[in-house]
Amino acid sequence: MRRVILSPILIVTACSAPGGPYPSLQPRPAETIDPRLPVARPLNDRPISSELADRLAALVGQAQGGSGAFDKAADQAERLAATAGAPRSESWIAAQQALSAAVAAREPAARAAGDIDAIAASALQNKGGIAPADFEAIKQAADVVGAIGTRQAARVAAIQRRIGG
After folding, report:
1. DSSP codes of every residue in the chain
2. Rounded CA gap, 27 and 89, in Å?
3. Which of 20, 67, 112, 144 sits at 20 to 30 Å (Cα–Cα) from 32?
4. What is the pLDDT of residue 37?
């Protein structure tokens, strides 16, 4: 019977550590800040650098400039897809080749999108963050280039559905 009573006491005392400096239960300085209060200003509210603005403008221009070549290739692929015969026929193969040319013509927009992402990733890795003005400029450039890429992807998908196989 004595064993039964000692076992719970031993279990409870085994969880306590002897001595040592105990942490204070007083509020820490960060706990005194009211999270509902707005931040007075961003920590880094500098304007976008001209170098970054020029680089982003060049990438948007690259994507927009490649749209003409893509549209021309996609128009050709759509014409050939409209007259494509059965799979593996001469006309079907010609439509597939034209579709491949349209997909290849998407390269300027795809490369620009990747380069914009790389700019953001580099800033995060090398600087530990992105300034608000830089972030907004990168986001706007990514949105423009992303819209071009989305439009091109939709046209390619429509041609693929039309050709089949």
Report:
1. -HHHHHHHHHHHHHT---S-PPPP-SPPGGGGS-TTSPPSS-S--PPPPHHHHHHHHHHHHHHHHHHHHHHHHHHHHHHHHHT--STTSHHHHHHHHHHHHHHHTTHHHHHHHHHHHHHHHHHHHHHSS--HHHHHHHHHHHHHHHHHHHHHHHHHHHHHHHH--
2. 78
3. 20
4. 74
The two three-digit tokens of residue 46, written as one number: 């500098």
Q: Rounded distance, CA 83 to CA 38, Å?
A: 62
Whose structure tokens read 């204070």?
A: 24
- Cα separation, 63 vs 37, in Å, equals 42
Residue carrying structure tokens 């279990």: 11
Tens-binned pLDDT, residue by residue, of the chain (165 aa): 555 565 666 566 655 556 667 778 888 887 777 778 776 665 677 889 899 999 999 999 999 999 999 999 999 999 999 999 999 999 999 999 999 999 999 999 999 999 999 999 998 888 888 888 999 999 999 999 999 999 999 999 999 999 985
